[in-house]
Write a structure and sequence with these properties.
By secondary structure, the protein is mostly helical. Helices cover about 85% and strands about 0% of the residues. The longest helix is centred in the middle third of the chain and has 23 residues.
């Protein structure tokens, strides 16, 4: 369920970019980081022999992808204000 929610969130970010007609470099960086991490997570969840592997992947890959969100959000807000 959580993986699906994250994918929906990423889709919403992409819809916002489409509606403002632009996608700045910070949004692209966030989109790529989160999209790549979610794609890899799907594989890790299926292939992992131990739940600890999934937790480690989330901690090392998925969570850091959200470090790019603050800059992406600011860029989206700036585009929306124009």
């Amino acid at each position: 369920g959580t993986l699906n929610d994250l994918q929906v969130f990423l889709s919403l970010v992409q819809q916002i970019c489409t509606s403002v007609g632009s996608q700045g470099p910070k949004v692209v960086a966030f989109d790529n980081a989160l999209g790549d991490s979610l794609g890899a997570l799907e594989t890790v969840v299926v292939d992992a022999d131990d739940p600890e592997e999934v937790a480690t992947f989330i901690e090392q890959s998925l969570v850091p992808a959200f470090d790019k969100w603050a800059d992406a959000e600011a860029e989206l807000r700036k585009m929306a204000d124009v």
